[in-house]
Write a structure and sequence with these properties.
The protein has 289 residues and is an alpha+beta fold. The protein has 7 helices and 15 strands. Strands 7, 8, 9, 10, 11, 12, 13, 14 and 15 form a 9-stranded mixed beta sheet that branches. Helix 6 links the parallel strand 11 and strand 12. The longest helix is centred in the first third of the chain and has 15 residues. The chain is globular, with a radius of gyration of 19 Å. Bound molecules: pyridoxal-5'-phosphate (PLP). Pyridoxal-5'-phosphate binds next to helix 6 and strand 13.
């Protein structure tokens, strides 16, 4: 099975791809990334990922002049999928851009240093089995920095939280800060309280997930009342449903949070309807590029 990646201007086998030990992604975690879902060789909500990617680059002040434009980046994704025999079925493309390679110094390198651009692709198996039973999650303090809106490769907050979840036999960690639920370690979190779906508003405390935006659209189309207002920790015992969203998981019901059963311990009606809506959205030509 071919495993071809793109690194700094060329396609090459993964085992031949090399980055410098001076790359600022390696030394400082100085870069951004995107993970895009692909269905039959096309990108689900591709332009939204590119918009977020460029906002992240602007947020980190990484110069975009030497990077491919959006059309060229989309073409690169398509070509990568084709070279990896991923033009049918489901896959993800991982994209990473760092501030490039230069002798170690915290301040930015000279403007002449180009960013490093890396893409790889993998087949994925949709998490349908887990969606049927529902996932387990643990509640943890949100110890991340104050710019969670930037999708940086500096992911230690997520790494430590996700590891705690896995060690607890759970699939995700739900994070809280100042008495409210922010998001998951690698997902956005939604809860249903008194028939209204609630999620943390966009801002610097969460990543604005592409799946979060799609979820809000699907909920509106379902006629489901939604409020972008953070869930309070003290409201958690009253939730009838809790679920998380991400590019690879769609909307995943949480049926147990620490030792607490959510609802009746099975995926609730909002999450189930969302799951069906996602299954249709993934094949909606208007969302595929
Ligand atoms: C912290 C965090 N929140 C939310 C998400 C979900 O984002 P998306 O729906 O774009 O995959 C991710 C995905 O990596 C994430 O890391």
């Amino acid at each position: 099975m071919s495993d071809i990646v793109w690194l700094d201007g060329q396609f090459l086998p993964r085992q031949d791809a090399r980055i410098s030990v001076d790359d600022r992604g390696f030394i400082f975690g100085d870069g951004i990334y995107e993970v895009t879902r692909c269905v039959d060789g096309r990108l689900f909500e591709g332009p939204r990922h590119l918009v977020r990617m460029r906002a992240g680059l602007a947020g980190l002040r990484i110069d975009q002049a030497s990077l491919p434009d959006d059309a060229a980046l989309l073409a690169l994704h398509h070509e990568l999928l084709a070279r990896n025999d991923l033009t049918s079925g489901q896959a993800t493309v991982y994209l990473q851009i760092t501030r490039g390679s230069a002798p170690r110094a915290h301040q930015f390198p000279a403007a002449s240093v180009p960013p490093t651009l890396y893409l790889s692709a993998s087949r994925i198996t949709p998490a349908d089995a887990l969606r049927t039973t529902g996932a387990r999650a643990i509640l943890l303090p949100d110890l991340r920095w104050a710019r969670c809106d930037l999708k940086t490769v500096n992911l230690l907050g997520a790494v430590m939280a996700k590891q705690r979840a896995v060690e607890s036999g759970a699939q995700e960690a739900v994070l809280h800060r100042d008495g409210v639920v922010t998001e998951g370690s690698i997902t956005n979190v939604f809860g249903v309280l008194d028939g209204v779906v609630r999620t943390h508003p966009v801002g610097t405390r969460i990543l604005r997930g592409v799946t979060r935006d799609v979820t809000l659209e699907l909920l509106h189309a379902m006629g489901q009342p939604v409020e972008e207002r953070a869930l309070l920790l003290e409201e958690l015992p009253q939730l009838s449903e809790l679920f998380y969203t991400s590019t690879t998981q769609d909307a995943m019901p949480i049926v147990r949070l620490d030792d607490r059963t959510i609802g009746d311990g099975t995926p609730g009606p909002v999450a189930r309807r969302l799951g069906e809506a996602f299954a249709r959205a993934l094949h909606d030509a208007k969302r595929l590029r």
